[in-house]
Write a structure and sequence with these properties.
Order of helices and strands: HHHHHHH
Subcellular location: Mitochondrion inner membrane
Structural class: mainly alpha
Strand content: under 5%
Protein name: Mitochondrial carrier protein
Largest sheet: none
Main location: mitochondrion
Shape: elongated
Number of strands: 0
Low-confidence stretches: none
Number of domains: 1
Keywords: Membrane, Mitochondrion, Mitochondrion inner membrane, Repeat, Transmembrane, Transmembrane helix, Transport
Distance between the termini: 30 Å
Radius of gyration: 20 Å
Pfam families: Mito_carr
């Protein structure tokens, strides 16, 4: 939806750079939002991976880990590292989406010829 709205703004006047920019911006926003929303799950995964007690690690569930973090550190603990995670994911997804759309367009043009 973000991509469609951005492409609607450039409409018929859009050149390749504006279409590429719209694809990048849409991917950037989507990647940033997804990284922010899934951050608590990433924190729980990391905590489970670094658990030193092998027996405890085998018994840990994601839900239990999230509750433990919430009790000991509060909501802030669930979003530890959200800044760097979002800063990395936004540009990465933007680049992937842009590249995907360019390749899709090129293949479509090739098949039309």
């Amino acid at each position: 939806q973000i991509r469609r709205k951005l492409l609607g703004l450039v409409a018929e006047d859009g050149d390749a750079a504006s279409v590429l920019g719209a694809n990048f911006a849409a991917g950037f926003v989507a990647g940033s939002l997804a990284a922010g929303v899934t951050c608590p799950l990433d924190v729980a995964k990391t905590r489970r991976q670094i658990e030193k007690d092998a027996q405890k690690a085998m018994r840990m569930t994601t839900r239990q880990t999230l509750v433990d973090i919430l009790r000991s550190e509060g909501p802030k603990g669930l979003f530890t590292g959200v800044g760097p995670r979002v800063a990395r994911a936004g540009p990465s997804v933007g680049i992937v989406i842009s590249f995907y759309e360019v390749i899709k367009y090129a293949l479509h043009q090739r098949n039309m010829s």
